[in-house]
Fold this sequence. Notes:
Elements: H1 2-21, E1 24-33, E2 38-48, E3 55-61, H2 73-80, E4 96-104, E5 111-113, E6 121-130, E7 135-145, E8 155-156, E9 162-165, E10 170-171, E11 174-175, E12 178-179, E13 195-204, E14 208-211, E15 214-220, E16 224-234, E17 238-242, E18 248-252, E19 255-259, H3 268-285, E20 293-296, H4 298-303, H5 321-341, H6 350-368, H7 397-407, H8 423-445, H9 449-461, H10 468-477, H11 484-491, E21 499-506, E22 510-517, E23 525-531, E24 534-541, E25 548-553, E26 559-562, E27 577-579, E28 590-594, E29 604-615, E30 619-627, E31 636-645, E32 650-662, E33 668-683, E34 686-700, E35 708-721, E36 733-747, E37 751-761, E38 765-777, E39 783-796, E40 805-806, E41 848-849, E42 852-863, E43 866-876, E44 883-895, E45 899-907, E46 910-911, E47 923-926, H12 930-938
Parallel strand pairs: 1-13, 19-20, 28-29
Antiparallel strand pairs: 1-2, 2-7, 3-6, 3-10, 4-7, 5-6, 8-9, 9-17, 11-12, 13-16, 14-17, 15-16, 18-19, 21-22, 22-25, 23-24, 23-26, 26-27, 29-30, 30-31, 31-32, 32-33, 33-34, 34-35, 35-36, 36-37, 37-38, 38-39, 39-42, 40-41, 42-43, 43-44, 44-45, 45-46, 45-47
Helix pairs in contact: 3-5, 5-6, 6-8, 7-8, 9-10
Amino acid sequence: MKSNYFFLLCLFVLMIPLKQHAQHQSNMVVVLHTDTKTLDVQQKLTFVNNSEEVLTTLVLNDWNTAYSSVQTPLSKRFSDEFYRGFHLAKAYQRGKTTLESMVDTDGFFLNWSRSENHPDLVCIKLRESLAAHQKITLNLKYTVKIPSAEFTKYGFEAGGSFLLKDWFLTPSRFANGAFVRYSNENLDDIVNATSDFNIELQIPSGYAVTSDLTTQCLATDSVSSVWKLTGKNHTNWTLFVEPKLSFYSFKKDSLTVLTNLKDEKISLEQQKRSIDCVVDFVTQKIGHYPHQQIVVSQTDYERNPFYGLNQLPAFISPFTNAFSYEIRFLKTYLNAYLKNSLGLDHRKDAWIYDAIQVFTMMQYIETNHPKTKMLGSASSFKLLKSYHLTTLDFNEQYSYFYMLMARRNLDQALINPKNTLIKFNEQIASKYRAGLSLRFLDTYLANNRVSKAVASFYKSSQLQQQTSADFETLLKSSSQKNIDWFFETIINSRDLVDYKFGSATKTKDSVSFSIKNKTGVAVPVPVYGIYKNEIVFKKWLEPKTNDSVFRLARNGANKLVLNYKNEVPEYNLRNNWKALNGFFPNNRPIKFAFMKDLEDPYYNQILYVPTLDYNLYDGLLPGMRLHNKTLLEKPFVFDVNPAYAINTKTFSGSGSVVVNQNYRHGALYNVRYSCNGSYFHYAPDAAYLKINPMVQFRFRENDFRDNKKQLLLLRQVLVNKEQSTLLANTTAEKYTVFNAKYFNSKTEVTNHFSFVTDLQISGKFGKLATELEYNHLFLNNQRINLRWYAGRFLYNKTQSDYFSFALDRPTDYLFDYNYYGRSESTGFFSQQLIIAEGGFKSKLSTAYANQWITTLNAGCSLYKWIEVYGDVGFIKNHFQPHRLVFDTGIRLNIVPDYFEMYLPVYSSNNWEITQNNYSEKIRFIVILSPRGFINLFNRKWF
């Protein structure tokens, strides 16, 4: 017996140092030069081959080099997300790593290279193969040029601080027979091998040092100070060097928390209580943090804030300062805690980090703030009582942010690598969906089985490297039920869950009902029996892929509700209830709400909004908009906006009905059927009525991040135009035009290309047009834009230029453009410019073409928003030779496409700038639609 104990003891002793001695080691001497924003580094790197493979090359992560040019994957991601700051950065703002020498222990220089696809990786060719479980020591000497913090919030700041992350060379993780080769794409997902660090850092005297590593000041004088930083078993860590220390230190048991989160005007004692509460909760739920100290920084929070309603400005914030601080600390602490200790592939297995983080946050709220509402204290305001928004619990907002993308058909599978996600998914929707999914499984399995599995998985990750497959195996072993559906459907696919009630019959003691599976995706769902808003029973059901029938004890229930507490991340909750009393069991009552609200599944919502529009002839148009558009997209939408015209003393307005049909697989992802109409005056004494039935087919690439968009539009435009006695050559007309358009565009911050074809067929004419547009932004902030337009009549039986191609101001016979004074030929409103058809800015004597037209519009920036433009083209009218036309001038591009001015200089009319009444020749673009401005900010997210 004793011999067995002795054997186990020896085995245990042998296993303990195995992990410790198998780590890579980095010993560095680093000197920070604050004036040049550089770090001189001498590094002794010991690489241990922990695999069973024989290695001939090594791969080091050098993510600082991602800031070196506009050709790196980091720069391309910035461009895709419409961030132009990096593209236009000065040389001193960029970062790079200059590798001066690399020698092995024998003093031989080693060959190394960077690939075109991964310039921020250093690939080292070994002189001799490195056998399994052997090690090699490299001596590196390099200079790190620190980038500006304006790009990613890490780097050098204007105030003199240095916020450093991923700046040193370190081995990439070796897994599955190869090194992980990821480039920096501003996702905080570097996959480093676990290493021990011993660093001597020299900085100017007076600067303070904060790090996840243990820090100690060794010496200081009037010029500089020397610090020692040490840490074992780290994959990543941050380093803050500041002229004035911004971090506070809080001790909780054996863990030191260093944080500079903005205090929101709460005392240090309140901060400590919040920090103690969070640390205790996370330790209890997940496990002990394996290192001695952790940094929870304002920088990390700003990179990944808590997206929710508590981001309202401070003066209208519905949450207390203490609660806001606690939530922000919880979010940031969990992020650092998991990233620094859970040894997964941060990019490939990102969903596990997100799931554990959000799931734990939801548990924290349920435990410590169970009565907190989504709108905080604003939920008690009497004026807001009628809004569904005020009735929801704090944790219910996660479902709405996920559903925002699902209803747009832009959600992505949780298993997708982090760098393939749309920004809104990467930052918000996929994170929240992951947490909701883990909570769903935990609720279904009961007895905190998932919570216990998370703690067990975290503990296992401290002993050896884990993968998502290990997490799946652990969850399945923790369950007595078959949960294959969870991974196949919830994690590995973007399939939607959507159930609805079918028929139901009842007796006094029981109820029988069918459940229809609208998507064919079978996962468990709870059914609740409700009596006077009280739950009288709850039962988990397991419907099949087709319709299922169930029989349950009624327990006095007068209403059945599927997924009552939204435990299942379901696509549509509006069809989840069945009344057991009444003649019309599914007739939801109407509920009116002012402005905007969240979708309320138990009411037919009608939102009303006062509106004020304007055109020259109707004058001011006060009206009332009635619609059912909530914050989530719906399959059926109506929107009517009747208005009263002050000038004409008549009713005007517009309206539309839309039916959306999404397709989850394939290039065609959305078909939109709609019919809209409008009635306004086009002259002081004449109005038009437009009816426009339409269908749109939207296409996208397999890569959701690809900014290429395609759309096919088919419509029939019916116009009834009254005669005006005030305008010459106008008659009452009724006409209809079939219109087919194809749009193909690809847009990013540095390049834009679009292609449009336009076919119009009517009894009086047929015409075909094509438009090409290209914009390019150069490194010196110079922009060039080119637009080519060509159109030709297939046949033309008209007797006027009303349907002709226009050189500078289309007649807009389809009433598509938002002209404020569409019939004006002189005066201020005639100077409104809409870039369409010929796209000219000067008004020329021959303004129309009834046979064919081709024009080229060009522009080039001179200084900031001042540009020079030029247009040239040919126009051809019947019985006339073709004519060459041109114009040039200055463009004041204040807000591109929304607020611009054009100042003509020279054209086919000769020198325009010297002619009389020059102010009448100036053209302007003004877009007053708030939706247009919102699109400027939304495009980086979707």
